[in-house]
């Protein structure tokens, strides 16, 4: 009977026995993570001390160098900033001043749009309210009537009072609804790329029309509320792209004020001064990589990875997106080192760059290390990776994990989550895919890459790409919980008899 | 039996029969207020078009002049800005720029503290973190170690994620809890005045110590959250007070950032430029007053008043505090005029100045018109006022009324509120006093002055004295409801056979 069951299980693809958890190790991890946490100090360094961490900017560099130096202090091996290829231009803000001066004075909450030029000294001008979404729109403004003007685009959003809390946690009912499989959205990559290309080309024509008309500055009202605004993806950072015209992104209330005045026939004058620096010569950027060497002779060549993206947007210190995830991963590594654990497999941390512009750091790392998702030509290390764990959904504590369509590790993860029943309320496993961050780079070559289910807190309302994504938005107790859980997942993965089960390999892509 | 009841009621002080409501008139008021509302346009003019309305500032003047001109257009009589005495200095911001420049660049959300000097051009300096609450604290800093520095005081508040909605409405349970009488807090006026005097004197010593040490600028982190901050009461606006040192009030996250960097031993440099203008020569300011003349030969000398304060703080356009109340009161008057109603008693609107600095406009108006609350020497008009209705609790719709300790009008108000059962959910009357605004000036001389119970919406969380008290925060549907209800209350009061019952007259004050 037993052997029949065993044979049956062997036939079940990807099935792995959930081994017993080493309770003594778990106790050490919990003690270090929950009672001696350093995650607050790590988060302070990544946010306050480093500053905004746009890829290739000095702020990113500060955070990366500090991380390497900490990892070395903790005794990790091969700690370095590992270059992965060409990113494009670095950029940072050196001055940001914007105010309405007529009909009366009002300082405006805003920041230069990423990768735009500065104003080359103070500028003043009357504001023209525009809405340029199509070629037809652009034609309307091609007659020189915008000459010498400052342009304002208002945000098409409701910024009125909200009767819902900014910060929320998942209820048990909401988590239960996440469990059933849903069809993954079909993403037509060539179509998507073409749409982006068309958008960029149109935006370049708008830019050159504005430049030809001597438009002084563009102001874009952004979604948000009460002093918080969500920045955009910015202008092009490519090494060969022309430098975009000066532009500010501002809070919706201030854009609304100017727009309403103009609609009432009242002329509005702004004054502005911005300075931005491009770092043209440094076209490469790197991921922070470090390792705890495995100790089992048979398994030490195998690797368990954990990571998150270290880069952020530029209008705040990127606390929840994604200093939180990096602080958790660094702390998880610190916990394992401080607890003196000797993993069988090698544990490798990666803090990625270029995530915000398209997962560049992780995609290139995977391509350079494991294989090419386009051709599915795999490198030898592909066989050696057990799993990659990622954190990039803000400050909220772990409530479960996305299987990313991979049923194999369900029983293992169930057991591991259950071992934290006191600090994970209603632990949840879903077969679903979740997107938008670096585990996808692993998934794309058929490697087990996982993202955790985290409480949302204020991610969608206040912090994701906003000017208010600051240290204050971090919930330290949640960061501690995450680091402790991740440390255990990573260690347990390193100790498993087998690697984490995999899905079928993806097919090479036609395009 | 009937006559016995009647005699009994006559013995019951302040009892007044609730007359029947004129349903045709009510229908006209509802139609004009709910279907043809102009409150949105009025609110736009008071906020966006006028700008911040600090008493005696050009913004206040714009709003007052526009209000007078509208009232005249609507056919009101005696529309004017009526001076009430000496207020002090007018003041406005002409430039406001503040940024961290080291260890990296970050523009800071802030505004000059009211009635402080500008920086006289750009200033740069290293930040010293201080906490000066007592004479002992001040002594610590009297040794010149602050010379040439920029001082930062951090806010002692939690600005972390909040799991409560910013905007709320009263539940029926909450309203029911407001009904029972509670003991009014005993306010020891001489003690309170002395405490304020001591505070001002200490603040002046801090200011002169800092000036003597050549402190360049003070930065005060204020309570708030995510780009919203609550400004303070500012420096002294008195005509004879020395001009206070340059100071900014800033968002808590930005104060927190600087403070944490300094605590980590990292030097922080700021650059700032502010310009402020004092309007020293114009030491008087006025209330906007206008009337709809009464038409009943016996009652037209009697007056019903409605009002709210027109002045605001300076960091936004004072939308909920209190353009909302003024827009509602102006709209209520417009409704009555447009509906062509001919009230028996005279109806008078008053939009007050100087409320934010101590109800100056209404207190002086009451003293000049009705009597002195100190001596209780009353003027002839005291006998002629039926009631004063005030709105100053933000944008939230009317849910009931505070009787202000005056049981007399309960039955009348119950009936009037009930006539709006479709737009007032769970109408509530409480015997309680509510404070902090201009109806108190009337109450202080024994005149019936009432403030409505309004839904809080975001008043305590986002708008009251904040930099984000903008037009976006207004709930237009609630303003319409308020204007309609107030128009009916005012008209009904003008038509009553008797004046609104009064409480016993207060005693003259010892001090």
| β-strand number of chain A | 20
CATH architecture of the largest domain in chain A: 3-Layer(aba) Sandwich
Low-confidence stretches of chain A: 1-14
CATH class placement of the largest domain in chain A: Alpha Beta
Overall pLDDT metric of chain A? 93
Feature tags:
elongated; hydrolase (chains A, B); 2 domains; eight-stranded mixed sheet; Glucose Oxidase, domain 1; secreted (chains A, B); 511 residues; carboxypeptidase activity (chains A, B); disordered N terminus; homodimer; alpha/beta; Aminopeptidase
Commentary on this structure:
The structure is a homodimer of 511-residue chains. By secondary structure, chain A is of the alpha/beta class. Chain A has an eight-stranded mixed sheet with strand order 1-12-14-13-17-20-18-19. Chain A has an eight-stranded mixed sheet with strand order 3-2-11-5-6-7-10-4, with helices on one face. Chain A has helices at 2-11, 23-35, 39-49, 58-73, 135-140, 172-177, 189-212, 252-263, 319-338, 360-369, 410-418, 439-443, 459-463, 476-495, and strands at residues 77-86, 90-102, 106-107, 110-112, 123-129, 150-153, 217-221, 224-225, 228-229, 247-250, 269-279, 284-292, 303-309, 346-352, 371-372, 377-378, 385-390, 398-402, 428-430, 449-454. Residues 1-14 of chain A have low confidence and may be disordered. In chain A, helix 3 runs antiparallel to helix 4 (58-73) and helix 9 packs across helix 14 (476-495). Chain A folds into two domains: 14-87 and 283-495, 3-Layer(aba) Sandwich (Aminopeptidase); 90-279, Glucose Oxidase, domain 1 (3-Layer(bba) Sandwich). Chain A contains 14 helices and 20 strands. The interface between A and B is large, with 59 and 60 residues.
């Amino acid at each position: 009977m037993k052997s029949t069951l065993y044979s049956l299980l062997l036939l079940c693809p990807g099935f792995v026995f959930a081994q017993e958890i080493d309770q003594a190790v778990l106790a050490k991890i919990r003690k270090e993570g929950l009672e001696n946490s350093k995650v607050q100090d790590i988060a302070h360094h990544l946010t306050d001390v480093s500053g905004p961490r746009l890829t290739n900017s000095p702020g990113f560099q500060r955070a990366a160098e500090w991380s390497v130096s900490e990892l070395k202090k903790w005794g990790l091996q091969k700690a370095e900033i590992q270059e992965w290829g060409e990113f494009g231009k670095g950029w940072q803000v050196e001055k940001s001043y914007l105010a309405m001066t007529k009909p009366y004075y009002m300082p405006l909450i805003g920041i230069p749009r990423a990768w735009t030029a500065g104003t080359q000294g103070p500028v003043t001008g009357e504001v023209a309210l525009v809405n340029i979404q199509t070629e037809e729109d652009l034609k309307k403004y091609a007659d020189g009537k915008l000459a010498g003007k400052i342009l304002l685009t208002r945000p098409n959003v409701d910024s009125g009072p909200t009767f819902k809390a900014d910060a929320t946690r998942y209820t048990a009912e909401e988590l239960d609804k996440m469990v059933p499989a849903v069809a993954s959205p079909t993403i037509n990559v060539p179509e998507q790329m073409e749409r982006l290309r068309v958008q960029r080309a149109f935006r370049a024509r708008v830019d050159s029309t504005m430049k030809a008309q001597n438009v002084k500055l563009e102001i874009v009202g952004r979604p948000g509320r009460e002093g918080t605004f969500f920045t955009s993806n910015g202008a092009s950072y490519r090494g060969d792209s022309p430098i975009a015209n000066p532009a500010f992104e501002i809070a919706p209330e201030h854009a609304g004020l100017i727009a309403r005045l103009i609609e009432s026939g009242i002329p509005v004058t702004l004054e502005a001064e911005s300075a931005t620096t491009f770092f043209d010569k440094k076209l490469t950027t790197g991921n922070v990589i470090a390792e705890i060497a495995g100790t089992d002779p048979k398994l030490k060549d195998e690797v368990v990875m954990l990571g998150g993206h270290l880069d952020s947007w530029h209008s705040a210190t990127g606390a929840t997106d994604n200093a939180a995830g990096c602080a958790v991963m660094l702390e998880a590594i610190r916990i394992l080192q401080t607890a003196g654990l000797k993993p069988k497999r090698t544990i490798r941390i990666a803090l990625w760059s270029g995530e915000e512009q398209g997962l560049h750091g992780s995609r290139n790392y995977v391509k350079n290390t494991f294989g090419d998702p386009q051709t599915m030509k795999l490198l030898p290390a592909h066989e050696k990776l057990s799993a990659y764990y990622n954190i990039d959904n803000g400050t909220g504590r772990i409530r479960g994990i996305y299987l990313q369509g991979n049923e194999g590790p369900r029983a293992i993860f169930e057991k591991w989550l259950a071992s934290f029943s006191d600090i994970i309320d209603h632990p949840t496993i879903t077969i679903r895919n979740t997107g938008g961050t670096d585990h996808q780079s692993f998934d794309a070559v058929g490697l087990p890459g996982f993202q955790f289910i985290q409480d949302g807190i204020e991610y969608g309302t206040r912090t994701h790409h906003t000017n208010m994504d600051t240290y204050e938005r971090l919930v330290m107790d949640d960061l501690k919980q995450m680091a402790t859980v991740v440390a255990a997942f990573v260690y347990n993965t390193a100790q498993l008899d087998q690697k984490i089960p995999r899905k079928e390999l993806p097919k090479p892509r036609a395009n």
